[in-house]
Amino acid sequence: MSCLPSRAWLPSLLAAALSLSSGLSHAATGHAEDVDPSIGTGGDGHTFPGATMPFGMIQLSPDTAMPDFKHAYKWAAGYQYGDSSLLGFSHTHFSGSGHSDLGDVLVMPIAGDVRLEPGDVAKPGSGYRSRFSHDSETVQAGYYAVTLSDYGVRAELTAGRRVGWHRYTFPAGKPAHLLLDLRPSIYDYQGKVLWSSLRVYDDGTVTGCRTTRGWAPGRELCFAMRFSQPLRSRTLFNRETDNLYKGFAGPGHQPEDRDAQSGRALEAVFDFGELKQPLGVKVAISPVSEDNAIANLDAEGQGWDFDARRAEARAAWDKALAVIDVDASKDQRVGFYTSLYHAMLSPTLSMDVNGQFRGPDGAVHQATDTNGKFEFHSTWSLWDVYRAQQPLMALLMPQRSTDFIRSLIAAREASPFGILPVWAYQGLETWCMIGYHAVPVIADAYIKGVRGFDVDAALKAMVASATYAPYGGLGDYMKLGYVPIDKEPEGASKTLEYAYDDWSLAQMAKAVGRKDIAATFDKRAGNWRHAYDSKTGFMRARKVDGSFREPFNPDTAGYGTDYTEGNAWQYSWYVPQDVAGLVKAMGGDANFVTKLDSVFDAKVDPSKFANVEDITGLIGWYAHGNEPSHHLAYLYDYAGAPWQTQKRLKQIMDSQYAQRPDGLAGNDDLGQMSAWYIFTALGFYPVTPASDEYALGRPFVSRATLHLSNGKDFTVTAEPLDDAHPYVGTVTLNGKPLDRVFLRHGEILAGGELHFTMQAEPNRSWGRAAEARPSSMSGPGNRWPAM
């Protein structure tokens, strides 16, 4: 996923917006040792290598570059493995996003002379950035360390939920300094700060805030910082007025030592003299205020035992990852647990210890609802995570899902538009991507038994989002049954995604007994048919007059086409609620399979997608590096050819994931790519979130045990599991033959064993019958609840 700068409806919404002022019971099993956070830090993975906690508010990580917006895509997480120097360490980062921002509260330890500008990467010593070697890096779950070659400083980082912990060991004989730069943003190195402030208290506590006009306009982030060693001196700079661009030393250029500064270009240098022991630094952040940041630091930043904090972070990851035990080779375990780690980074805690959070209206709110207090989370890439990452959380961590849903509802109630988040972080909305995919997140969780949230408020929020006419051509969609391309870009994709979201809303309404709502949205769920062109066999966008837009080329992708980050080859399969209907529309099983084969087997020149940076990981037209393709391999199950699903899954797993920095084929997108890997390795996948079914594939680990929140275990086994036996021969559930190619959520929650017997050749008879296939709206074999 990467976002385009605007949508047709966006200016009016922004103008209006700116006018408004779990606990797991199983013991830790040490799986953190198999996590490698460097995976995805190279290529297009856009992950960060630094320290964080599961779903934590702090992501303390090194930044190698913060270029201007036009060049920021590769550095969406602030770090690229191929770089050889660091700017410093900042406290907030996205994991695997297709868009950039954050990089708040950048600090750099400096031994010797201090420079106030980063300098030229090609000219070592020209600024405060330092060279480093990957040989000096230690990258672990909850811990990061590196040696800054130009200063001889050993930097170590770990994290609590709201506090970042630093330990810097300086070389003997040189004065130790810490530089704080409030100017940088991963969205744009300079020029995006609207206002910032710095203050030093008598006890040495440093606080500050800044407001930026990055991806989410008007975002405010505050912090509080303390040091383990007494300050010798400090200097606060306002670079707009101090006019010191060659360092702060020099005749006639020493600025006044101020206790406070405000402006748009603030820096500070804190001096400690020659140190005989490491310097500890602890930083708490708050989206609300300096006072809240201090309260966060007081509550969660006690003492100076860095090693104890590091051990706590490691223990938190061991506990979180203990939800699944796998038997596999070392490489497979690293791939599996790193994926599970990445899937547990977002959404992030975005609430202070006093329960306050900032909402999409820019105001401060309290995290309480009809069920009492909860923890507010944000960082929602909903176009991505509704597909597998959030269903994975509903399966493994339903208590977390409850907080997530309560957060979505709270964000909706604080929204000036009265709708659920689309792409939000730190409580603020960006309006990135399409669909109203908070709806299937809520519906999927409810259908799968997640409770503890206000169901009436949830359904009200879902309907409000699905009927908000100004959003993305939704008004025309409700009138015409499709989004007209002559009034709204990417009309085919929007029509298809709205129809699926409508179906998920109908499932929720049925489950709570609201037949009136269910009837409305069941009907809308069939709107995918308005996008299907039987003459070409592709999904296309229509104009207001009902005709398809011409000329048509199924290969064309990019903004201004019928599709969002894809083309007709990728989007023509997006009917997860009615795959059986799509099979029939395409001429039946044989024709469907033949056309699906043509997607994977096509000879495609990757340069066709040079203008769409997120379309990566190509296997023919299939693009695993972008989410619209993620369910395609499982669609063979719906046409009676599950052995083809097994074949394609092995192609994808073998070519799109690897245990190295460039081991992700595309943006991890806040854990979606990683969640796809986890489900696929287990042997099943949620093709249709908001149903209770998973399509079966084939496992990629010989044994995996899910330790469920209800105290039961569900185990998946496979044998013989090797390259010589890539196909499923038979499947048993609790020792009984399973003749269908889907698994029910309740069967997992009941505990037991799903066993795959693998073989060298395809079993072409298993799963062929209509009743053996996963459910679809129009059948055959629809087992979803009727109204």
From TrEMBL:
Pfam families: Glyco_hydro_92 (PF07971), Glyco_hydro_92N (PF17678). Keywords: Hydrolase, Signal. Residues 1-27 form the signal peptide. The keyword Cell inner membrane does not apply. One of its GO terms (molecular function) is hydrolase activity. Residues 765-787 are annotated as: Disordered. Residues 35-286 form the Glycosyl hydrolase family 92 N-terminal domain. PANTHER family: PEPTIDE N-GLYCANASE PNGASE -RELATED, SECRETED PROTEIN. This is GH92 family glycosyl hydrolase. It comes from Dyella halodurans.
